[in-house]
């Protein structure tokens, strides 16, 4: 929360987006999926605002995963759409949709 507060005070939208991404991941790991959904939504909003395409892809992926866990139906606009980033390794997995890393799912 400290990172988010500082980024907001400095009006650092990039830092705020990164803080929202990080807080969303932390809440997901703790099983606080509703809170994680709020941070992932904010991350997507900021990523769109600043033109961060990789951030948008990551946020959309996180939102889809969280909505699935929460039983929220994903609309046609929210599924995977072809993107110029599909060929990139965005850190967690290649955008082929074939494999994903789920290292935090079984944390105790």
Secondary-structure map:
Layout: H1 2-9, H2 13-30, H3 33-50, H4 53-70
Structural description of this entry:
The chain has a domain at 2-70: Alpha Horseshoe (Serine Threonine Protein Phosphatase 5, Tetratricopeptide repeat), CATH 1.25.40. Residues 89-101 have low confidence and may be disordered. Helix 1 runs antiparallel to helix 2, helix 2 (13-30) runs antiparallel to helix 3 (33-50) and helix 3 runs antiparallel to helix 4 (53-70). The two termini are 22 Å apart. The protein has helices at 2-9, 13-30, 33-50, 53-70. With 108 residues, the protein is mainly alpha-helical.
Summary keywords:
single chain, 108 residues, mainly alpha, Serine Threonine Protein Phosphatase 5, Tetratricopeptide repeat, 4 helices, 57% helix, 0% strand
Helix/sheet category: mainly alpha
Report how far the terminal alpha carbons are from each other.
22 Å
Helix percent reads 55-70%
Fourth-level CATH superfamily of one domain: Tetratricopeptide repeat domain
> How much strand?
under 5%
Output the CATH class name of one domain: Mainly Alpha
Radius of gyration: 14 Å
Helix count from the secondary structure assignment: 4
How are helices and strands ordered from N to C?
HHHH
Coarse shape: flat
């Amino acid at each position: 929360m400290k990172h988010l507060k500082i980024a907001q005070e400095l009006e650092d939208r990039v830092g705020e987006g990164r803080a929202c991404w990080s807080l969303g991941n932390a809440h997901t790991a703790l099983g606080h999926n509703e809170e994680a959904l709020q941070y992932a939504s904010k991350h997507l909003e900021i990523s769109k605002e600043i033109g961060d395409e990789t951030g948008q892809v990551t946020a959309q992926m996180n939102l889809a995963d969280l909505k699935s866990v929460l039983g929220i139906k994903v609309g046609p606009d929210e599924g995977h759409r072809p993107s110029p980033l599909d060929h990139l390794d965005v850190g967690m997995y290649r955008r082929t949709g074939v494999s994903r890393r789920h290292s935090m799912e079984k944390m105790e």
